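Quiz preparation item.
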């Protein structure tokens, strides 16, 4: 969630004009923007729709036919905005009814400026936390759904690869062996050479399949070597130029960090090849004190970040969710910056942890 420097915008729903003006003045003193005053429940709902405040300060005892509780219920269900109740009454039945609307605060008249500020600050903080939790839940649902889809796609791909390529190779060897059994008295050199060629092709197929699933050099040679390999592969296939810089470390990084970094770079390069129309890609793997910093930037066409985030939440851009999830699992944070025509930058920061420290 991006932090905004603007003042929180508060709508006041209060039918006593003098009280409403006094509340508006208090809000201004507290650093809030009182964007309007509604004196009926219907007007409060209408102004919420038109002005889109960050919070509604709602008097319960508004004029009939609807009171503040009914207005708050509509505002919460239609606009998902926080409501803080203000009232001069503390009757138990009123409180119980107000609770059903899930208010973000409740303050009794008369109240001090300090009390008002405390209630509003807590309500806005709670609302931001609620939005963050909701977005995280949506992301997890979209990611979980996509993980299952990708698992099935990968299983299908591996099954086809095994059947169509390895299966055919093994079948050819079987036929040649059966043919050799029938031709015992004739030279078998040609059949043997054919079998050797088929076996060599099958071995190449197995190596290619294994490398696709997980490159052995990531385990054998480490992250830097694996990233150098995948950047060269991507550049060859996609036509853009790649510069790779990395800090030379004395010890191997923890296996989970190496895997996460490799997959994040792999996904970023895939996205660049598919969408960015880039000519140059720069990848950096650095260390800042005890923090690992992975940076992938390109000079491509860029994109509107809000649209990308909306697609991700809808489950239509799960590659980004996957990168964020991998960063989170190693205690890191992933940020993406982009705008149309200005390329994009993916940055992942996480604690620097070596292989020995993870044992």
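Solution:
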């Amino acid at each position: 969630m991006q932090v905004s420097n603007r003042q929180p915008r508060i709508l006041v729903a209060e039918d006593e004009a003098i009280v409403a003006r006094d509340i508006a003045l208090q809000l201004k003193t507290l650093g809030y923007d009182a964007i309007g005053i509604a004196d009926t429940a219907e007007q409060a709902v209408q102004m919420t729709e038109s002005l889109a405040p960050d919070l509604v300060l709602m008097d319960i005892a508004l004029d009939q036919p609807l009171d503040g509780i009914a207005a708050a219920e509509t505002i919460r269900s239609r606009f998902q905005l926080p409501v803080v109740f203000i009232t001069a009454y503390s009757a138990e039945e009123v409180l119980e009814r107000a609770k059903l609307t899930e208010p973000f605060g409740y303050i009794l008249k008369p109240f001090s400026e300090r009390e008002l500020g405390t209630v509003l600050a807590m309500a806005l903080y709670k609302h931001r936390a609620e939005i963050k939790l909701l977005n995280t839940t949506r992301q997890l649902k979209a990611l979980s759904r996509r993980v299952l889809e990708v698992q099935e796609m990968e299983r299908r791909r591996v099954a086809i690869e095994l059947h169509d390529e390895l299966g055919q190779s093994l079948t050819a060897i079987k036929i040649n062996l059966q043919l050799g059994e029938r031709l015992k008295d004739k030279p078998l050199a040609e059949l043997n050479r054919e079998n050797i060629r088929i076996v060599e092709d099958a071995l190449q197929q197995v190596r290619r399949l294994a490398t696709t699933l997980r490159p052995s050099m990531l385990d054998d040679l480490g992250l830097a070597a694996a990233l150098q390999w995948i950047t060269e592969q991507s550049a060859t296939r996609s036509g853009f130029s790649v510069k790779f810089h990395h800090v030379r470390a004395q010890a191997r990084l923890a296996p989970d960090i190496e895997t996460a970094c490799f997959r994040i770079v792999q996904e970023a390069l895939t996205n660049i090849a598919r969408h960015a129309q880039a000519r140059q890609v720069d990848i950096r793997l650095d260390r800042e004190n005890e923090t690992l910093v992975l940076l992938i930037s390109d000079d491509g066409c860029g994109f509107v970040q809000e649209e990308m985030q909306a697609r991700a939440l809808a489950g239509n851009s799960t590659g980004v969710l996957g990168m964020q999830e991998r960063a989170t699992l190693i205690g890191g944070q992933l940020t993406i910056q982009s705008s149309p025509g200005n390329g994009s930058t993916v940055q992942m920061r996480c604690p620097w942890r070596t292989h020995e420290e993870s044992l």
